């Protein structure tokens, strides 16, 4: 479908605070599905009441569907952490400085991970916690979900193939969509193709194989804050190197869908979705292992 410039202008004018677009979230979940241990898959299929291959992908965008509802309003701040740095000269995230009183993606990952591990919590609460963890672990890998400048780029207007859009939307959706052959493709087939490629690149022989172990180094189930601060810091570093390499003013009105900017952005997006998916698999493994160990201890 061809979207007119006028319609895109309208879209850009809407109050926006989206999230890693559905393509990014679904692909992240599908990559994770390919790397979890069999016991992890069994555990989460039961918890999420879905024994198809899409048991993770099917819930990956749920957190976005409730954030603008009356009930879900309290989760709005959980999708990001607003680093008060000053790209491109200084990038950096600090938990005490940047995590708001009403929470942020780092505190949310801690909160919902600990709920998942809480055997006393009723099943529907643990199911909900799983959906939040799956979503927020994806969000933290989108560089502009770790940046304060112009509300994570929502206030920066740029051009994408001649249409006016905001920079946050570009990094949530436009880059990935263009990598996959343009808007108008259904998310599931596109995400399946993308996740299959990323999975091959992470596996032995792929271009990410040599670094994959470093992606989960220092991952600590007992310290989700420190663990996810590591992810946030890494993600935020791309704000200086690839998102705003010349700073926030210089990018206003620039065409970003062509040339060097897009090339670099596509590389970063691919890497971040691969990392997010692989880390999600390992994080869910750690959770399922802990729960299964508790269950066997209880049987003794
Ligand atoms: C499992 O999830 C997929 C993807 O959302 C969905 O199409 C399917 O209907 C779900 N199956 C069950 C049993 O809920
Ligand atoms: C933790 O999760 C619960 C349940 O969704 C929520 O009510 C609470 O506000 C969360 N706390 C923090 C600090 O994020
Ligand atoms: C996936 O890999 C195939 C074969 O190398 C390639 O043609 C295609 O463009 C790739 N798709 C994505 C989304 O990376």
UniProtKB/TrEMBL annotation:
<dbReference type="InterPro" id="IPR003154">
    <property type="entry name" value="S1/P1nuclease"/>
</dbReference>
<keyword id="KW-0479">Metal-binding</keyword>
<dbReference type="InterPro" id="IPR008947">
    <property type="entry name" value="PLipase_C/P1_nuclease_dom_sf"/>
</dbReference>
<dbReference type="GO" id="GO:0003676">
    <property type="term" value="F:nucleic acid binding"/>
</dbReference>
<dbReference type="Pfam" id="PF02265">
    <property type="entry name" value="S1-P1_nuclease"/>
</dbReference>
<comment type="similarity">
    <text>Belongs to the nuclease type I family.</text>
</comment>
<keyword id="KW-0325">Glycoprotein</keyword>
<dbReference type="GO" id="GO:0046872">
    <property type="term" value="F:metal ion binding"/>
</dbReference>
<feature type="signal peptide">
    <location>
        <begin position="1"/>
        <end position="19"/>
    </location>
</feature>
<protein>
    <submittedName>
        <fullName>S1/P1 nuclease domain-containing protein</fullName>
    </submittedName>
</protein>
<keyword id="KW-0732">Signal</keyword>
<keyword id="KW-0540">Nuclease</keyword>
<keyword id="KW-1015">Disulfide bond</keyword>
<dbReference type="GO" id="GO:0006308">
    <property type="term" value="P:DNA catabolic process"/>
</dbReference>
<keyword id="KW-0378">Hydrolase</keyword>
<dbReference type="GO" id="GO:0016788">
    <property type="term" value="F:hydrolase activity, acting on ester bonds"/>
</dbReference>
<dbReference type="GO" id="GO:0004519">
    <property type="term" value="F:endonuclease activity"/>
</dbReference>
<keyword id="KW-0255">Endonuclease</keyword>
